[in-house]
Structure formats: structure tokens, C-alpha cells
Amino acid sequence: MSKFKDWFTEDEDDIFFGSPKSKFFDILEQTHRDLIEDEIDKIFEKLAILELIVSKDRDEDFDVNSYLEDFKEKNQEEVNSMKKGLYMEVSGEIISRLDS
User: Fold this and answer.
1) For the chain, domain boundaries
2) CA atoms of 55 and 25, how far apart (whole Å)
3) pLDDT digits (tens, 9 = 90+) for 73-83
4) How far apart are CA 74 and CA 3, in angstroms?
């Protein structure tokens, strides 16, 4: 069990109430479009790189989406935790660029 598990649970008494996903979209609504486009482009670039890595040296019938879905089913808790962390990471990147 991860010692960080409770970091991502929602607490009604928390002043930052909401999930990392909901906070991410709150930030998107308040941020300039050019900055958002730049950050989303970075996400797509990272996704493209990761898909190429997973697909490397596979035959032409390899279906990356099926592979990813199988992986997700077998590792759902870890995937959810990583996804929350990525929402927080990208939110932090956007916030840090607001001052510049």
C-alpha cells in the first residue's frame, strides 16, 4: 500500500476541496488560451512518444489501444493514482507560467 494514497482523497473540510481533475479544469477555465494550447501540445507530444515506445519492435497488427486497455484493467489503482498525479503536474506547470 502506498504511503501517498491518502494524498488524493477528497475531504469536505479541505479548503482545496475537489479532485485534481476538477481543479485542473477550474484552472483551464481561468487561463489564457495560448498557454493552454501550449501545455496540451506538450501532453500530445508526450503521448506520441510513449505510444511510439510501446509500439516499437511490434508487428504491424499490434493495437496499442487494446494493449493499453488491457494494462489499465490489470493496474487500475496505479493508473488512477498516476492520472491524478499528472493532473496535478500539468496544473502546476500552468500555474507556474501564469506569473511569467
Assistant:
1) 19-99
2) 31
3) 999 999 999 99
4) 21
CATH fold, domain 19-99, is HP0242-like fold (1.10.3350)
- Segment 4-46, tens digit of pLDDT: 555 555 554 455 578 999 999 999 999 999 999 999 999 999 9
Give 43's contacts (C-beta < 8 A, 6+ positions apart): 90
- Lookup: cell for 62: 499490434
What does the block give as the cell for 1?
500500500
pTM for the full model? 0.77
Query: Vertex 85, ends 84 and 90: CA angle to 5°?
Result: 100
User: In Å, how far are 11, 18, 39, 52, 99 from 45, measured between CA atoms?
Assistant: 34, 28, 10, 11, 24
